[in-house]
Specification:
The complex is a heterodimer of chains A (376) and B (210). Chain A has 376 residues and is of the alpha/beta class. Chain A has 17 helices and 12 strands. Chain B is α/β, with parallel strands linked by helices. Classes of the chains: A alpha/beta (376), B alpha/beta (210).
Chain lengths: 376, 210
């Protein structure tokens, strides 16, 4: 990128959760962002307008003020953010998640700074979020210089919501191949690894049921689950009820280094992502990319960005959502055929190296931001 | 002890109803609705006429809907959401068996006597539940229904199946359940007890400076 004029990027992200913070951290570091808001109030703060810290007080008293005065803290917030962007001579704002981007429409307009919205998952699919932003998303699509999605599935979704095709870019998140060194899956024991939050769209209990069914064909297999969430307790109960306490381990939340180490010891990665009843879906699950980068074959569902990241029969084995029978068969196959697991895993790593590397993702992001900022 | 209005929950003959299993309660860990689903899968495999109605709402509801689908029992399971008192009563009156798989949640959270269970018993339904909290004070294993160990969905399924396929047994156990609720837990008894306690408190007021 030397020779090109330096681009001053401001990254704005909500404090979400440990998993999504990975790639946001990567954006901040790899893009050399000059300014960062990392704890931008998120849509969970229902009804609260978005302002940086100095105006937080205004947010809290805002709703109780008479209507005429109520918009005052809001206007002050817009002005304070806009002033900040101008003072720092920001060329472009990258807002992580749709709702965050919505909050930056006005500040960016006032400051005359182009805005790029980066969608990730729930912000593009969750029914409540879509309802809440039924009016503001169209405003965002009209105002943003660029809108980024992480899968073709999400691209179709946002086109359906009215995003302008010429300003819509598909740029999947990338994996740091250094952090996830290659393992030979065929040399590992039949350990099936699942990593992710225990939430409905990752349906961990379905992975569990599929694994239970597979056990008849491969009694030596084990399932290790790293992650935390609302449904962890229910999954523990189910594992206990199914008599799987000896074969299934729930590790709770694990650091990235620990996850990388677990991946080096596994035979395959499993994840039964399914559309939640709220309409919520995945983007392109980063854990799947990381597992593939580690040289693991991935057993997963045809869901959101997964069929792009995992090529059925080449780098992993895919099933339809909720089809635990088929998932059980795939688990049994990879538990008993180590050679196949190794071959799929090698191609998986290759697929990630070519299509989902961090370098490629950041390069893509950089190009989109440059285009949006008018610096090309 | 809480009471139940045994006039409002009029008794029925459980054996006259089709093999419909009803669960009423929040979809939370300590009521383990997912374990009830595992049990029902076994029941349905043996008794295709079996139906399960799970009334209530909660964090595990959506997960349970997914589970029912993947277990291939979606056509036999209904999730009507939370219902009002009269709708619950109507549903109970058309059922064969009441089921509730209460467990001690990993958080240690456990429950007392579930009102919905008493209401089902008052309606004359046999109850299949767990050896848990207040349930074992209310229900008598082998008489008012069956109790199983926590998480033992296979035993639960076995008992559900026996009541699902034996109407007479369901009727007699249901009558027994009603009898027990009428004599022990009816609203009258509960209010009488409360009355005694209050009377006692009033009479002994002189000895307590208020």
């Amino acid at each position: 990128m030397s020779g090109e004029p330096k681009m001053k990027i401001c990254v704005v992200s909500p404090s979400q959760n440990a998993y999504s913070e990975t790639f946001i951290r990567a954006h901040i570091d790899e893009l050399n962002a000059v300014a960062v808001f990392e704890d931008w109030p998120y849509y969970e703060h229902a009804g609260r307008r978005i302002v940086p810290r100095p105006w937080r007080v205004g947010v809290h008293i805002g709703p109780r003020l008479p209507v005429l005065l109520r918009s005052v803290p809001e206007r002050l917030a817009v002005r304070s953010v806009a002033g900040f962007l101008r003072r720092k001579r920001i060329d472009v704002v990258l807002a992580e998640y749709g709702p965050t981007a919505v909050d930056l429409i006005d500040p960016c307009r006032v400051a005359g700074v182009p805005l790029v919205a980066h969608f990730h998952g729930c912000d593009a699919y969750h029914r409540d979020i879509l309802k809440q932003h039924a009016e503001s998303y169209p405003r965002l699509f009209a105002a943003a210089a660029g809108v980024i999605v992480v899968s073709r599935d999400m691209e179709r979704q946002l086109l359906g919501l009215g995003a302008a095709p010429e300003r819509l870019f598909c740029n999947p998140c990338g994996v740091d191949l250094e952090a996830f060194s290659a393992t030979d899956a065929s040399a590992n024991e039949p350990i099936f690894l699942a990593v992710g939050r225990f939430v409905e769209k990752k349906a961990p209990y379905l992975t569990l049921l599929a694994f239970e069914r597979a056990l008849a064909a491969c009694p030596g297999a084990r399932l290790i689950y790293a992650g935390d969430g609302d449904m962890l307790g229910a999954c523990r109960q189910m594992a206990g009820a199914l008599g799987l306490s000896g074969q299934v381990e729930f590790l709770g939340h694990r650091s990235h280094a620990e996850v990388a180490a677990l991946m080096r010891k596994a035979r395959a990665f499993v994840q039964h992502s399914a559309v939640a009843s709220s309409g919520d879906r995945e983007g392109t699950p980063v854990a799947i990319l990381e597992a593939a980068a580690s040289g693991l074959p991935v057993i997963a569902t045809r869901h959101a960005g997964i069929p792009e990241a995992v090529i059925h029969g080449e780098t992993g084995l895919l099933v339809d959502e909720l089809d635990i029978e088929a998932m059980a068969e795939h688990i049994a196959v990879l538990a008993t055929d180590a050679g196949l697991a190794g071959a799929l895993g090698r191609r998986a790593r290759q697929h990630i190296r070519v299509n989902y590397s961090m370098a490629k993702s950041v390069q893509g992001l950089n190009t989109i931001l440059r285009k949006a900022s008018g610096l090309v | 002890l809480c009471g139940v209005d045994t006039e409002y929950f009029r008794p029925i003959e459980a054996g006259r109803n089709p093999p419909v299993f009803v669960a009423v309660g929040r979809f939370v860990e300590k009521k383990a609705p997912h374990i009830t689903l595992l049990a029902f899968r076994e029941v349905w495999a043996e008794l295709p006429a079996a139906r399960l109605i799970m009334i209530g709402d909660g964090v595990l509801l959506d997960a349970c809907k997914q589970l029912a689908q993947s277990l291939g029992i979606a056509s036999a399971v209904q999730f009507p959401g939370p219902l009002n008192a009269s709708a619950v009563r109507d549903t109970l009156q058309q059922a064969r068996v009441f089921v509730q798989h209460s467990v001690t949640a990993p958080s240690g959270d456990s429950e007392g006597t579930a009102i919905s269970l008493l209401e089902a018993a008052a309606t004359g339904l046999p109850v299949v539940s767990t050896w848990h909290g207040g349930i074992q004070d209310t229900m008598v294993h082998g008489q008012t229904g069956f109790l199983v160990e926590e998480l033992d969905f296979r035993a639960m399924a076995k008992h559900m199946l026996s009541l699902g396929s034996d109407p007479e047994r369901a009727t007699s156990m249901g009558q027994c359940a009603r009898q027990r609720v009428v004599t022990t837990y009816s609203m009258n008894r509960s209010i009488e007890g409360l009355h005694r306690i209050l009377t006692h408190a009033v009479e002994s007021r002189g000895s307590h400076p208020l």
